[in-house]
Write a structure and sequence with these properties.
It is built from 16 helices and 15 strands. The chain is an alpha/beta fold. The strands form three sheets. It has a six-stranded parallel beta sheet with strand order 6-5-4-7-8-9, sandwiched between helices. A six-stranded mixed beta sheet has the order 10-11-15-12-13-14, sandwiched between helices. The longest helix has 18 residues. It is globular and about 65 Å long.
Amino acid sequence: MNNIDEKSQGKQALSDPGEARSRAILQDIYHAAIHAVQPSHLLRKKLEVSGSTLWVESGRGRRCFPLTGSVYVVGAGKGVDLTAPVWEALFKNRLQGGVLVSRERSLRGRLGRISVLVGGHPLPDQRGLAGTERCLQLLRRTRRNDWVIFFLMGGASSLLVKPAPGLTLEDKRTVTDLILKSGMAVAEMNCIRKHLSSVKAGGILRHAYPASVLTLAISDVIGDDPTVIGSAPTFHDPTTYRDACRVLGRYRLMKKVPQRVRNLLLRGARGEIPETLKTGRMFSEQNYYVLLANNRAALAAAKDKAESLGFATTILTTELSGDTTIKARELCSFLKQIKTDNQEYRRPHCFLLGGETTVRVQGKGTGGRNQEFALVSAIELIGCTGLYMLSAGSDGSDGPTGAAGAFADGRTISKARALDLDSRQLLRDNDSYNFFNRLGDLFCPGPTGTNVLDLKIILLY
């Protein structure tokens, strides 16, 4: 396993405190990671209006943007609703209006000039369609010298929905369901989504023109590629209709998508309809992009928390990807190896991983990639003592379930056997949710208000 971080030394030796205490520690580390990438916290920390200038802290230093006209705020993603009061306080009378489309509305209380709307996730729905139209109505009010602040978070690919001409919402829902179950990587899924949409792949720039657009993004993709995050509503698109056709063909889905979708993609591949926005085009000239946070920032905070609790800590990777079962087995093989050879890693040790694996759904059960990762790990770690794992989504959800993930350790399978649960059969049926639900081992923090991929936290005593 590739190490991207120097191993840090724990403050003191800790013996195995048992399951209950270890799970409490795992949760403390998880919540420390989440707090560090909370949107409202980040905006207050990194944005400042001084006179008629907006200052933004970025990875490339402090950047300034002259607020020459009116300001409009548009946002999409899980948790964007919680930022509404921040925008109103930051821009005050300069703010002429705003629309935020979120997975749920956690914010309570009345707002001034910003509307918060709710859309469907992971499947787009009629609410998201209406919310997107409200965004576009607002953008039509913009003029030259105005600024659009576009706040982009994970989940925007589903929440921001306007089918390409000739397609229907049901077409988009059918395709989304197929690709989510296929085992595709996010970049592959978003290549398809971008070519079936009127607002993705730079579509928002078209609607905002001639105003300037500043995108502030929290990344939920490995590598933080702006052409992939949220399906790039405010960025150019290097992929083509032919690429989208190739991806569908690779996963044997071309004949399964609706006829209207197939016809559109084939027409695009033949050059009969215009491509998505490419670099150098007019709409890209007044577009600025700043990344505010990512999985690496969350893991850095998790590392600090683990160290404060007395654990030597290693960030193994922030780019965990590939098949869930394969990656879980690889991690467990690594953990079992170092458990028998304790020369390199001082105990107690905390291992951290970030990223997003994929699951090809072949069964009829319920679950998500984090619960499935935990189930595979539980099977691989049978009988291992002093090892505790939490695999969880940073957004507080995992697949179509109310859980973010699950806990696993060396006793998980023995507890399952006592309840007559067949772990391997449930794994084959992609039914990890019901497996962990019976055990009481689901992790259910609720919506966290952010989204920076998945977190794997392992304690080794």
